[in-house]
Inverse folding.
């Protein structure tokens, strides 16, 4: 069992809710990483569905308050379950405070029209790049748990004019990613907007996420190995009125699109 497995584990309580523990190891600037909270939600939702054939298809989290280190509970409600789709909601609560609201859809695979017009960017393979783990002495604690090899933009803030960042990524402890890990990967790199403006007293002070949506697009190939890297790309194309969007893609090195994400964030 890896650190990620331990820190995203859920335990069903007598009242049907799920007990979790929010660990400081997955902290960013002002609290736990939103992708880490999404991973906790995925594991609770999966346990509530209880059907391995119904895979996560969509997850949206609205972040209401900043969580603190320590115990929390996830209350899951099955809103509807049909022949092929299940719709669920979840509330992540801590000390009586609502931390996040989630909506999710789980469903069986359907043999219908399939195509992929979106293509993975042509980037150098991970083995040709230098590892960046962790990202400097002042890095957020979560960075210790990833091995990161940048390929698009720079992981140094304020270095380019385009809000685009991409890197090959894997967990520091080898592990084949499940849906929970992919949800965390969708919030795994420094914000793309930091490519345009550096963090600091005269720049960006923070980019807290308001909501995060993840679409799970394909299962991992059967050939996936624990030490594989995944290409994570994030871009921001609009910032206005103090809000911005960030769109993400998670790819296998073979060009299979595993997940897409969009988040709305507050620029402070």
């Amino acid at each position: 069992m890896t650190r990620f497995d331990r820190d995203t584990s859920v335990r069903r309580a007598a009242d049907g809710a799920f007990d979790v523990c929010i660990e400081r190891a997955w902290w960013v600037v002002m609290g736990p990483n939103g992708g880490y909270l999404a991973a906790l939600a995925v594991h609770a939702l999966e346990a509530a569905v209880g059907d391995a054939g119904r895979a996560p298809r969509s997850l949206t989290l609205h972040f209401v308050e900043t969580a603190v280190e320590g115990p929390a509970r996830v209350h899951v409600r099955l809103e509807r379950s049909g022949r092929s789709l299940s719709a669920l909601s979840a509330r992540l609560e801590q000390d009586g405070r609502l931390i996040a609201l989630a909506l999710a859809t789980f469903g069986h695979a359907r043999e219908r029209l399939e195509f992929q017009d979106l293509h993975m960017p042509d980037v150098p393979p991970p083995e040709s790049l230098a590892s960046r783990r962790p990202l400097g002495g002042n890095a957020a604690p979560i960075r210790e748990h990833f091995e990161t090899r940048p390929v698009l933009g720079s992981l140094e803030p304020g270095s380019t004019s385009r809000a685009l960042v991409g890197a090959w990524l894997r967990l520091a402890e080898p592990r084949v990613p499940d849906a929970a890990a992919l949800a965390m990967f969708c919030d795994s790199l420094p914000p793309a907007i930091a490519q345009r403006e550096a963090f600091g007293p005269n720049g960006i002070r923070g980019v807290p996420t308001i909501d995060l949506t993840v679409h799970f697009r394909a299962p991992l190939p059967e050939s996936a190995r624990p030490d594989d890297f995944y290409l994570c790309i994030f871009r921001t194309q609009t910032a206005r009125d103090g809000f911005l969007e960030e769109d993400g893609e998670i790819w296998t090195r073979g060009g299979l699109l595993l997940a897409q994400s969009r988040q709305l964030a507050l620029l402070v």
Summary: The chain has a mean pLDDT of 92. Residues 3-110+119-266 form a domain with the Porin fold (CATH 2.40.160.210). The helical segments are 3-7, 34-49, 179-185. The first strand starts at residue 11 and ends at 12.
